[in-house]
Amino acid sequence: MTFFDLTKKRSSIRSFKEREVSEGEVEKLLKAANSAPSAGNLQSYEIVAIRNKELKDELVGASHGQKFLGQAPIVFAFLQDEERSSKKYGDRGKLYSTQDGTIAATYLQLAAEDMGLGSCWVGSFEENEVAELLETDKRPLVLLPVGYPARKPNKDSGRRELDDLVRFID
Ligand SMILES: Cc1cc2nc3c(=O)[nH]c(=O)nc-3n(C[C@H](O)[C@H](O)[C@H](O)COP(=O)(O)O)c2cc1C
Fold first, then answer.
1. For position 32, what pLDDT does the model report?
2. Are 102 and 78 in contact (CB under 8 A)?
3. Low-confidence residues of the chain, pLDDT below 70?
4. What is the CATH number of the domain that holds 99?
């Protein structure tokens, strides 16, 4: 699949088959995330890969009842490591570490699509609750449930027109 086919085909998946994601597939996904660019190549984020059923169900509770988090065979949580970036970049490290983590999550999401897996970016959750469940003092940026899609959404989510989105300065 070309990159452009992949981005056209990708859509959020919120229903997963019971089929497991293999160790090899998980490694491939993580290597894709690890290849993302980051400020100063510091990679100021952490990834927690959650397969524990009880913990996934607790994440549902901390995410306003988004049940598909419990259904996915694996959930990747991306945590911001602000301290790592701020040591070098001061105040700017806050922004850089947010960007580092979300770019890495994007790479993982696109890799999942390329591998025939599905995912959904989950940003609606209680930060403190998720951090407590993951036993971390780092800020959770995004939860990414990944698995084999049970069904594809048949509705195109649509996008803004480029004219509305872009301003050229020539
Ligand atoms: C920052 C961010 C937060 C999001 N949070 C959620 C969420 O909590 N739950 C959810 O079901 N989808 C969430 N989404 C997915 C969007 O709803 C989805 O990407 C958007 O509607 C476009 O649809 P598509 O991904 O199928 O193209 C989030 C996406 C982003 C980028």
1. 98
2. yes
3. 154
4. 3.40.109.10
